[in-house]
Structures are given as structure tokens and as C-alpha cells.
Amino acid sequence: MKGGGADDFRDSFFEECEELLEAMHDGFDQIANETHDSETIHAVFRAVHSIKGGAGAFGLDGLVGFAHHFETALEKVRSGEIEADYEVLELFKHCGDHLSDLVAAARDDEEVAQETAAALGEKLNEVIGFDPSEAEELPDFEPTTLDFGMLDLSAPPLPAGYVIAFTAHPELFGSGNEPLLLFRSLEKLGTLDVTCDSSEVPPLEELDPATCLLSWTLRIETEVDEVTLEEVFEFVEDCCEITITALEPAEGAEPYSLPDLGAEESVPFPEPPAETPDIAEDGDAPAGASEDSGDLGANHGEASADAAPPPAKAPAKQVKDTKEPKEKQEKQRGGGATIRVDLERVDKLINLVGELVIKEAMLSQSIAVLDLPSENDVSTGLESLKQLAGEIQEGVMAIRAQPVKPMFQRMARIVREAASATGKRVHFVTRGEYTEVDKTVIERLVDPLTHMIRNAVDHGLEDTETRIANGKNPEGTVILSAAHRSGRVVIDVSDDGGGINRPRVLEIARDKGLVAEDAELQPSEIDNLLFMPGFSSKAEVSELSGRGVGLDVARSEIQALGGRVAITSTAGEGTTFAISLPLTLAVMEGMVIDVAGQTMVVPITAIQETLQPRTVAIHRIGAQGRVLKNRDSLVPIVDLGASFQFRDEPEDLGDQVLLLIETENDRRCALIVDNIQDQRQVVIKSLETNYRRIDGIAAATILGDGRIALIIDPDSIVRDVSIPSDPTMQLMR
Amino acid sequence: MGIKDKLHVMVVDDMSVSRGLILQALDWMGIQHVDYCVDGESALRKLAARPVHLVISDYNMPGMDGLGLLEGLRKGRTTQRIGFILITGSTDAGLMERGNKLGMNNYIKKPFSPEALKAGIERVVGKL
């Protein structure tokens, strides 16, 4: 754009595109599921239209061309000329995918192959019956020049201010609103006088402090208009009654009027002025008045007669008037007002809050050693500080949390592509798409999830003939769901296919030497073989799967996020991959332990149980190895102190504690630790950023006493144990 | 003082990017007094209390669309003569005819360049 630095807008254009594309895909989904209403197609149309508009401003011609074509077809559906049947909808979905591609390519300055657009364009032409690029008709419209001489742009004098009657509903406090803050905002707009009516407040003994029984009369002398005042109350309008009444304008107040722009001589409005005086200096402004402007002219006489009408007392108006459209707008945008914030700022805040939590723990520890009486102000104050810090932490984490919906929409596309590549008919269902997950987690989950979704369509679902032969619905179903469960996020990928073919999996694993020939495995252990590096059950390498990335990679990506994956499968009914993830990468629940005089932290999620060495049977294997028998399996014992070379492995485990830890692939191991201190939330500090990677250590944290403690990485510890590298070793009975 | 120093303009567009582009273009033209609204209803109420010389409004908005706003403006005593430019991607004959009937002063076809917007404004208010 020549007119100015459009680059500033480029980024926000693409961000807005994301939202628009999401709205578009949403609309298509609603239409496909028949949960749409008359507004849906308009919203889809508007989304594509707005993308086109923005793209045009940035000279993204390819994007504009395709969006225009797409929009024309959508318009036909919107106007009811053609019906959005299954095929049309499928075409639209593909067009939507391509539009997403074009947007992404434009953002990254990449080229997109023309063929897709051309092919989709042809199909769109079939739908709409003509090629819009050939038929761009110019409308018959003649601009009209404003005659400023005739322009009466005065309004009644502005009121001197307003009286706002503000009656809170009892639940105002409960919704987290504080009237004082509203009054402070009002105070910035003019001179404010507040009167509070507390006559409804009962005597103290009957008072419920959480119930608001107050009402206020606010008199504000201001120059701002009513709309601005209403905006102040925007967030509380659901839990109060507000009436805004304009005050009489001050004595001798001038009517509000705009500066006069010109003409000395006025010409009646309907008659186009031969030359617009003053303002049309070069005289090239066409002065044709529209033929229908007669109405305006007729009104003109009376309008100028009462150019300065007596200042009528403006009618009282309920703020609620504006509520309906606003809500509607919010619904269409899929959420309230939002601001865009640099991620860096949020992360800085998260770090600071982490520090705050640590400082709070340190303070708490220093106070504990002071030996204060049990009831004292310091402890009470500290307790509320602790609570506040916790709330702030939660709030800050919530900023990074985002609904999984956009990611799920990307998966819908993966399903479509996989379905057409394999020739299967797939019904894709998403659930819990408003579940919020940390932004980084979402981003890093895309690859593994893509793999699992492809896997579900490619390997999970049977082909159509087999399904029909087995009396199943020829259309397979893949369900992607997200939910919060006990402080973690659970994402499931399920299919209603034939389930894992266990004999075949076992055969392949044996052929590849992944399990011993004679090993007998439980069904769940066979299922977990799918995660073994180097395992690939593809008898014939399909187009989709031949990408060299196995489920093992998907799983290690999830593990890197502190997550776990489990498989469940029922023959003939389907398979489910259940991914469980921490809510955040910044804090975690840890068990603080002592090992050889060192304080360390073990992630709670990995700990299965704690055992007293005396109560369990410990066997020696070979010269060094020790195992313990737990629920019919032998679990190797690792001394944490020895594996980090803090000490030699203790001979006698009398006073120590054993932590039984388990990792994803059901590998288990028992860690010898000296003592368990505490279980608490710890702030994760990356070791790699601050120092370098160390095997066996996931990260570091700072404890209440200010000392650094290392957080162990159970996976790498279990991996390093020599005995269970072969999973069948666990099965020795 | 030229027109651009005196002209009061209200921009109405729900999409922050296209609104931003219009505002930026107006800034580039040197128009000093520019306000904006994000929907037709609030624009209408604001303009009733504080009229401007010219409204530049998007057509496609949720709730009240651009022509709905124009219709509302033409009904209000203090707003009926405000100049109105519609920004629209569609130049459908029916739309133009409705605009014409309501007394639309000009339209700008999306996508537009700042130069095209300037030309479109100048057709209505004269040389800036």
C-alpha cells in the first residue's frame, strides 16, 4: 500500500484471518451437522468476504481471486439460489482448506501451486453455473457531492452532564465486580458526585457481606456522550439496573455544531450545484444529485427552521438496549472482547509470578523457624498472601491457555485428506473443543496428534467393504475429544474400526526382533508394542504412512511435554489413544526427596507408590542388579544417589524409601531415596536455558529455602536401567 | 485551513483490520478529525449526539449493516444530511439501487487503495 506503512497491519490481518477461517470452518461444520441457523451461512460468507477485503488491501491477488470466486458461490447458497447439499458442502470445505493454505502461503511469502485453485475454481463454476471472473458488471451509480452550505450538522446543545441511577443486583459482588472501580473510571471522564443509598442494608447480624444491597446515584458533569458512559458499565450490565438521564444543558450553552466547511451561497439541495463553491477547487467533482434525493430536500426546509431547537430533556434510556446486538456479535466472534498481547510479555509475567511463589515459600519457611505463637498476624497475613499468589498464578497461566478448537479444526482437515487418500468415508466428531490448554502445549501437540489421526483413518478404520461385510456403518467414525480431568488435560483419539490386530502385531514384533520369540505378552503389552521404535505394522506402505514417522516419535513428543499416552483397543469395536497432559509447562506437582544429602524433586505423575524396603521382597540379579517383586512382576531397583554418582549404592536398604515409578511404555523402576520431605507445587526452571542438558534431569526448581533442587526425568532414568531394556523382562514370573 | 483540517469523519467497520486500513488511509490524507465505531447501532447513537460531516461505513457488518445505518441516519433530524460513503465488496445492482434510494453519496469497492478511497471521498466533499 502506497498510502502508509501497511506492514503494521499485516500481522493483525493474518491473525484476524485465523479467526475468520475458524468461523468459516465452524459454519461448515454446523451446516454439516445440521445445527446451523439462518445466520450461519451469512457468517461464513462474511468471513470469506472479509478475508478477500483485507487481502485486496495488501495486494494479495491470488488470495483475492480465489476468495472472490468462493464468495460468489457462497452468495448463491446464501441467496437460496442453490442448495448446500452434501457435495456442495464437501466442495466448500475443500475450498475452505485451500483458502487456509492461500492465507498461510501469503503470510509466509510462499508460492502455492495454481492447479488446486484452478481445479476447485472449475468445480465452483459447475456449482454456480458461470465464471464470475468473466462477468464483473459495473453498477449504475452516480456519486453525489455534499453541499456543505446546506449541511446542517448542529445538534441540540450537549447536556451539562448526566445522572446515572445505578442499582446493583444482589449478586454483583459474586460476579467479581467492584463498583468502586467503575466510579473511579467515571471520575476520569468528568466531575463526579456519588450518593449511596444503603437503606436496604440489614443490621450487621443479618448482613451477608457477599450480597450487594446498595444503589447509587451518580451525578457527573462531563463533555463525553452517553455512549461513552455506557461503555464504563459494559461489564456489569448483566448484574445491575442502570438508567442514564441527561442533565439540562448549562445556561446559555451553545448548540453542538461542526465547523462550517464552506459555501457562502446555498443552493437548494435537490438542484445539483453547477460548481461546488470553495470545497471543489478544481471543479472536477461531479455534481449529479441522485434522483431520489428529493425526500431529503423536502425535509430540508423544516430542518433548518428548527436548527437550534429548544433543548429537550433527553429521554432516559436503558443501557440494556444495546445488549442484544452485542451479545449476538460476541456469539459470532466466538468469545468476548479480546486483546492481542505479545507472548513474551505473558511469559515474563509467568516467570515473575513463579519467582513470587518461590519468594513466598522462602518467606514462609523463614517465619516457620521464628517460633511465633500459633495465632499471629504474620502467619494470617502470609496465609492470605499465599492464597493471593496462588490465584495470581492461576490467572496468569490462564492467559496462556487457549481452546483446542483451532487445532481440532486442523485435524478435521487431516481427516478429510486421509479419508480421500484412502478412499474411506469418515465421519469426524470433535468434543470439548473449548477445553483450554497451554499455548505451547497446543502447538507442540499438532504433530503427534496429526500422526494419530492419520493412523486412526489409515490403520484404525477398516475399508468400506470390510465394514459392510461386518455389518457396520460403511462410514467410519473418528472422535477427537478433549477434557480436563484431575488437573490434567486428556485428549482422546478414538476410531470405531476393527481394533488392534494383536496376533499380527505380535508376529511383526517378533519378526523384527522387538520381543523374544517365546515371550508371552498381555493384550495391553501387545498394544504398547505399537509405540516401540522401529515398529511398523504396515503390510503395504500407504501413501499416508510412508513418512518415516512412527507412533514412537509421536509418543516421545508427547512425553517431552510431560504427557503420557495409553492405548485401549477392543477387537471389532475400535481403538482409543488417550493422551494425558499437564495443564502447564511452568509448574508441576513434585515430591521433594533427599538423596545422599541432596534435595531433588520427582514428578508426582510418575510415582505409582512408595514402599518400605523391609516390606517387599528384594532379589539380587547378577553382581549388582537388584529387583523387587511387585504384583507378579520384577521391577529393577535403581539407587538415585548412585546413578548420579553422589555415592556408592548402599548395601542395606533398611532406612531408605523406595519410590515405584512408571513411565509410558509401562516400564517401571523403583528408586532408592533416603527420605521424602514434602509434596508441593514447584516452579519449573529450564536447565538447558540456564546451564545445559544433563541426562536424567528434566529441569530445576528453587525451593522455599532458596536452594536449587533438580527435578529428575523418570523416563530417562528408566531407560538407562539395563535390565528392562527388553520389555519382556518385566514378565518374568 | 483546507477541508481536510475541518472535516469530521466517522468510520464504521466491525473488522479491526479493514477499519485500521481506512483510518490509516484517512491519516495519510491528513484528515484531522476522525472517530470510529465498531457497529451500526452505536454509530447511529453517537452520531445523533455528535454529528459529523461524513460517515464511511462498511456494508457487511453483523447486526445493522451499512445500509441499515444509512437508513437510520436519514431518519434522524440531526443526522439526515450527513454524507455517506459505503465500503462494499459487492456492487450488486440491487444493493446499489437501495443505496441510491437511501441517499448514499458514494461507494468504494473493496478491495481499495488509499488513493481510491481519497478519490471517492473527494467526489463527495471536494478536493481535500
Topology, element by element:
The complex is a heterodimer of chains A (733) and B (128).
Chain A: H1 7-32, H2 38-57, H3 61-78, H4 86-107, H5 114-128, E1 161-168, H6 179-187, E2 190-197, E3 215-222, H7 226-232, E4 240-246, H8 294-305, E5 317-318, H9 323-333, H10 343-368, H11 377-400, E6 401-403, H12 405-422, E7 426-431, E8 436-438, H13 439-460, H14 464-469, E9 476-485, E10 488-495, H15 502-511, H16 523-528, H17 551-560, E11 564-570, E12 574-582, E13 587-595, E14 598-603, E15 607-611, E16 618-621, E17 625-630, E18 633-639, H18 640-643, E19 657-662, E20 668-673, E21 675-683, H19 687-690, E22 697-702, E23 708-712, H20 714-720
Parallel strand pairs in A: 7-9, 14-23, 18-20
Antiparallel strand pairs in A: 1-3, 1-4, 2-3, 4-5, 6-8, 9-10, 10-12, 11-12, 13-14, 13-21, 15-19, 16-17, 17-18, 19-20, 22-23
Helix pairs in contact in A: 1-2, 1-4, 2-3, 3-4, 3-5, 4-5, 10-11, 12-13, 13-17
Chain B: H1 3-6, E1 8-12, H2 16-29, E2 33-37, H3 40-49, E3 54-58, H4 66-75, E4 83-88, H5 93-102, E5 106-109, H6 114-125
Parallel strand pairs in B: 1-2, 1-3, 3-4, 4-5
Helix pairs in contact in B: 2-6, 3-4
Key descriptive features of the protein:
heterodimer; A: 733 residues; alpha+beta; Four Helix Bundle (Hemerythrin (Met), subunit A); Alpha-Beta Plaits; 5 domains; six-stranded mixed beta sheet; five-stranded antiparallel beta sheet; 38% helix; 20% strand; flat; disordered N terminus; B: 128 residues; alpha/beta; Rossmann fold; five-stranded parallel beta sheet; 6 helices; globular; transferase (chain A)
Describe this structure in words.
The complex is a heterodimer of chains A (733) and B (128). The longest helix of chain A has 26 residues, at 7-32. Chain A is of the alpha+beta class. Chain A starts with 6 loop residues before the first helix and ends in a 13-residue tail after the last helix. Chain A has a six-stranded mixed β-sheet. Chain B is α/β, with parallel strands linked by helices. Helices cover 47% and strands 20% of the residues of chain B. Chain B contains six helices and five strands; from the N terminus they run αβαβαβαβαβα. In chain B, helix 2 crosses helix 6 (114-125) and helix 3 (40-49) packs parallel to helix 4. The termini of chain B are close together. The model of chain B has no long low-confidence stretch (mean pLDDT 88).
